Amino acid sequence: MSLHHKATVLCHPVKMKSKYSEYYNQTLITAYYAYAKNMTPHEMEEHIKQKKQLTSLNIAIVVLCTIIILENLLVLIAVWRNKKFHSAMFFFIGNLAFSDLLAGSAYIANIFLSGSKTFKLVPVQWFIREGTVFIALAASVFSLLAIAIERYIAITKVKVYGSTKTCRMFLLIGACWVTSFLLGGLPIIGWNCIYNLPECSTVLPLYSKKYILFVVTIFSLILLSIVILYVRIYLIVRSSHQEATNSQAYSLLKTVTIVLGVFIICWLPAFTILLLDTSCKIQSCWILSKGNIFFGFATLNSALNPVIYTLRSKDMRKEFLRVLCCWGVLQSGRPSDRCLVPLKSSSSLEHCTNKHEHQMTPIMTDCTTCV
């Protein structure tokens, strides 16, 4: 029986059992990939042989993901070691770093389970492989939204820092992960295209096109929400009559431009590919075969987030150097006890935390630059 015939048979759910019974079918992935790629059995065999070795692109992505893991691990260690960073805003930054670290780890695992190894997986393993990446990347994006929400509330609400602040922090972080697991787990729960081949994605052959469209819509709404929140922050700062308002506003505008610019640059190509995937018929969009390039580029966002959200803090930069010093990377002959010298100066973000810890009026100029 040909691969095309096997795949076509799967389109008739009346004659088949529940789709969950196919989660351990070892021939299903090969059949669905053959259908998605519009290949004959012989072409599929040649395709599998060509996938036995890592490509230069995959090697480059592995290197990038290794950098993502190391730099986000550095952020987490810095936040954990220094009590000055045990505040709500730095915990949000730590949560973002943790989600980005998982994104890098998940993508490395995805690459080493791809290629010819893809066709040795059963569907449940394939769903876990792809779902883990979706969960990690979604958590990274939701963390960006949580930071935007926190910054907006910080400049519009009175008495920001207190028990209410801590409760809101845990609620936002918890909602970030619950939503990410739910979003990434929908296909394995049942929102997939098993027994419904015409609805199958070309880029992710076991995923439903409707699910992919849903994910793209969610991320687009998140992007829109971040834009709206930061625009409102900018307008509030701009309308303030306090001293140095103009310089603070320009500083905020610069930070917002960097954040949104990197987000859009990294994710827009991937969103475009996924949107094309939901509308293109089999073999009608050749660019879909290059999807790995665009997803790898989207992963770059996880490498840049620590730069944007932490290196603007002078204390965080100093803590990075101290951690690297203690690891022996930057000692340069200096005694190791110098690595443990307490920090003397405070960054603008730390000033915001301390200065307004018991303030009863909305935070305006000082904290609005601390994105």
TrEMBL record:
S-S bridge residues: C193-C200, C280-C285
GO-annotated cellular components: plasma membrane
MF annotations from Gene Ontology: sphingosine-1-phosphate receptor activity
Membrane-spanning segments: 59-80, 92-113, 133-149, 170-191, 211-231, 252-273, 293-311
Name this protein carries in UniProt: Sphingosine 1-phosphate receptor 2-like
Subcellular location field: Cell membrane
Main location: membrane
Record key words, sorted: Cell membrane, Disulfide bond, G-protein coupled receptor, Glycoprotein, Membrane, Receptor, Transducer, Transmembrane, Transmembrane helix
Record's keyword annotation contains Membrane: yes
Membrane topology note: Multi-pass membrane protein
G-protein coupled receptors family 1 profile domain ranges (all copies): 71-309
Organism of provenance: Salarias fasciatus
Family: Belongs to the G-protein coupled receptor 1 family.
PROSITE patterns: G_PROTEIN_RECEP_F1_1, G_PROTEIN_RECEP_F1_2
Entries under Pfam families matching the protein: 7tm_1 (PF00001)
Highest rank taxon of the organism: Eukaryota
